[in-house]
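Narrative summary of target 7.
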Amino acid sequence: MTKKIVSALMCLVLLFALPVCVSAQTMEPERVLVSEEVVDLGDGVTEVITIYVTVHKSSSRAASETITADKTSTGKVGGEVVWTYTITGDFTYNGSSARASNPSDDYDIYSSDWSCTSHSVRASGASIIGSATFTSDNGVRKSVSPKMTCSATGTIS
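Modeled conformation, tokenized:
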């Protein structure tokens, strides 16, 4: 008799826990590639520009929504990555307007021949604007100015 009660209680626990697990699983944020572009910067340097948006799935519709996006500029020489520069920020939109906040930037150097000589980032209205300059040992200097803008409907460009 005791085994039947324990088994029944275990079934009830699993029955109620399953929807919670499924619900939590569908609420996980998803990072999605929005665009990718290749630009020739000259002097044998190619820039690959990617934008990723992190979508925070919600079960209810709020008056305004916030998404996080990042834009990365990857510098390549001869097909090899020599540096990356990424700007990141949050965008709040409500269908009639959008606002950018929490701007940040970061860079990585993958070749000892290159260095980052300056970088900065700022939010302005519905945009996050970055700027970075990379210089090689042989005097090649490349500046990049990635900018992300959010539309009133949440489209990042």
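Strands lie at 30-42, 45-55, 65-77, 80-93, 98-109, 114-124, 127-136, 141-144, 147-149.
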